[in-house]
Amino acid sequence: TVVFKEQKIDYLIDQSLSIETIIKNICLELNKTEVRIQDLSLRNFETEELITDENFRRKVKEGDHLKLVASPAIEAADTVRNMKSFDEGTVKRTIFMLQKYIKEVEFVDEFITLGGLAYLQRTIMNCQGNTLAYALNSLQNLMEHDHGWENFTKDFVSMVSSFINIK
User: Fold this and answer.
1) CA pair distance 59, 12, nearest whole angstrom
2) Residues 6+ apart with CB under 8 A from 111
């Protein structure tokens, strides 16, 4: 089963096809000819894990439910836009979701390109409570990647180090 917004279809996934071709076929079956295929991706319905050509055969088993969602590039753009918001609730929800998405290389690359690190740094320096906890967890997840975190300022690194030293 594949879910796209409010629509649900039974779709037999051919694992010999690329993810792009599968998305294209799903869109045709849903009569979604106006959408741009490159703006969509597949995720496991239960775990939210991104399905790529590289992990497809390992991650998708018979009977799994998938959902058709915005691509990591679109998610990164939305995340950066929402991080710029002055609405505390919007920022908190966005940073909460960032914890998950920032684990994905496809997301991180676009997030960095769009200047998301500056907004993550700003959030950590200016927020408190759960928003700060989510932002610090996002930073920790970012550091699992071999790039991106070298762009933080010395003052920021000192501040984060002081959090660690408090423990």
Assistant:
1) 15
2) 76, 79, 80, 101, 102, 117
Nearest-10 Cα torsion for 3, 54, 48, 137: -160
**Cα distances (Å, whole numbers) of residue 67 to 1, 23, 119:** 8, 10, 29
Q: Put the strands of the sheet holding 2-4 in their side by side order.
A: 7-9, 2-4, 66-70, 40-44, 50-51
Q: Could you tell me the residue ranges of all domains in the chain? A: 2-70, 73-166
Encoded tokens for 35: 């959408």
pTM of the model: 0.84
Q: What is the pLDDT of residues 67-117, one digit of tens each?
A: 999 999 999 999 999 999 989 999 999 999 999 999 999 999 999 999 999
Number of CB atoms found within 10 A of residue 29's CB:
14
Q: Considering the domain 2-70, what is its CATH architecture?
A: Roll (3.10)
